[in-house]
Amino acid sequence: MKLVSVIVPVYNRCNVIEKCYLSIIKQTYKNIEIIFVDDGSTDNSLEIINMFDDDRVIVISKKNNGPNDARRCGFLKSRGEYILFVDSDDWLDYDYIEKLVKSLEGNLCNMAIGRLGVHYYYPFLKEVTLKVKKRPKKIDLDMKREYLPVLTPGIVGKLFKRELLELEKIKFRANEDICVMYPMYVKCRYITVVNNTIYHYQLSKNSQFKDYLYGYSIDNLFNTFGPLKYIYEKYDKMGKLEDYFYEIEMLFIKNISERIWNIMQSVDDKIYRYKFISVILDFLEYYFPDWQVNPYYVRGFKLGEVTDIYHIRVAYEMICKIKRKKLYIDLDMIYDRYRKIEEMYNKIK
User: Is the pTM of this model over 0.90?
Assistant: First the structure.
């Protein structure tokens, strides 16, 4: 039975961390080490995790530098042949690790993915749980490239072989997971999927509320643009951009469509809504001028999650209402235009 290192970054989660901890120590797979990395919490999270009474628990305390840095810190201290990450406000089914290990070893794969139960909070609505689509038990991404843009972007809910896990220093403090995962998918190539809902992912109330109110802000825009630009350049450096061109293009379309949806929720003025979206399309067309004939997009992105398909459909309907010309400008000019529109909108808001 191989050692599995469970790495949990913690930042101000004193109210929920115990639920996460209990779901880990009660795992049916017993050969684990649990590494809590307190990322400079300002509440009593560190005090709580120091009280956890289990010989398998290791606690690391560090200055706040974001979840990616906390995960890297935990990984460097880990000893396991297999690595998995858990967010401190999430929880696991008790056979979570056992199922992932059996699936990875039984299917001779390099990464195992567990099906997520995603818990959403929206203003004035009760909690809902959305299960992601079922996937084949084994995916060879070199042969089934169409699955690349639909695989979950988060680093949680997955089991990695240590020797294949690569955690670069990522400067982004939001959506940094996609910078790690999409290069990792190609590197691992052979991926197995456990189609049971065994990982329960809790979306932050605060982040969703901010998207609802300020989804148009330049900071939120960079949370989308920055990681997408990183992935494009990373695939180019890996020599994989041509091989996975349509898949990366669809990844851009999917994420840009979600950003358009956020703008539609957060911008009341119709004229400014069109202005924001027009600049976002400039960014997409900077990288992919002919994105509207992407084969996955044209076919309705049938392999995509329900939420992705919904965002794409809503964005399409909005784009059809906008009369615009493609502008052949550089990224700095795109960012500058967006900043000016945001400044004007904030004055009238």
Answer: yes
